[in-house]
């Protein structure tokens, strides 16, 4: 019986050696052919030893097989190298919790970033609404759309806007080049890159926003996804307002099976079950949980802080204590920034970023319950001695900074 070996692709190194005559074809293969070729021969599907004579015709057949195996192996190696080179890089942090709801927002944001004319997209929204989590999800879903990868740069720790460009440079592993300005280094390094940069928490370094325009002008294939409580107000900026989670209709509470699919309620349930495994939605607590989510306006951070109290309080008792919510919504996760561990800290962070005049106007507006029209705000402020024109600009600024929002 002729000898057969299982076919396997191997890269060939070495060259053909002269084939001297030998009595045994098998000894010819083992002793007279270079080792790399012998290895490939031993794994090819052409019978090369046995009772048949090793004729010139058979040698040509073997040579053809070896040449094809070498080409295939080299081609396979090149393809693997190409895939390794082209595999998009990413340094996105892996979220520790699932994103709940936001299906429509995710689809809309992905569509926007896939449009060629959209190169700067800013996710705005009040503190605690979930801008960072949504942006991370979108960046993960678009990772393979950018040949040179997606990169995450957190700006939350910064207190000086002048540190924004150095932070981007060092986060991307770029090395300083003598006296070259860091912005020029960034422009040169990213000039021909097809990348998406996710810049997180831009609101407190907003004065450096014009540098982003310079970067985009110098890097035609670069795109920026920015999260900020305040819009950047740059040419070419596309704004996307992240709103609180969808809420159940308070006039008609759905049954338990339907209620768990309402995003705000689903978030409360999942976070409550994380601290108390036996927590479930029941006919007895369904209305209280619904009221909690409504009372907190669907704000994800506030809902998570409330759900963490499920270990101590039943939903009905928790709802009663929300009359003094700033005292209840505390004790956030230790790995969150300090400003997100309590609702009071979150509100204080946003308030302290306002100018003195904006703070004054915000206090005036707090006199209204359930919102107010622009005309009503102007009338109140005018009665209290404020100039109408400045009130108009102030309301617009508070709207830009996500401390007011306009109902449809």
**Briefly, what CATH class of the largest domain?**
Alpha Beta
Q: Give the full name of the CATH homologous superfamily of the largest domain.
A: P-loop containing nucleotide triphosphate hydrolases
Give the beta-strand count: 5
Shape field: globular
User: Are there runs of 5+ residues with pLDDT below 50, and where?
Assistant: 1-52
* Mean of pLDDT: 83
CATH fold-level label of the largest domain? Rossmann fold
Query: Total helix count?
Result: 18
Side by side, the strands of the main sheet go: 2-3-4-1-5
What's the gyration radius in Å? Answer: 32 Å
Oligomer designation: single chain
Strand content bin: 5-15%
The H-and-E topology, N to C, reads as: HHHHEHEHHEHEEHHHHHHHHHH
Helix content: 40-55%
What structural category characterises the helix and strand content? alpha/beta
- Intertermini distance: 84 Å
Report the major sheet. Answer: 5 strands, parallel
CATH architecture of the largest domain: 3-Layer(aba) Sandwich
* Count of domain modules: 4
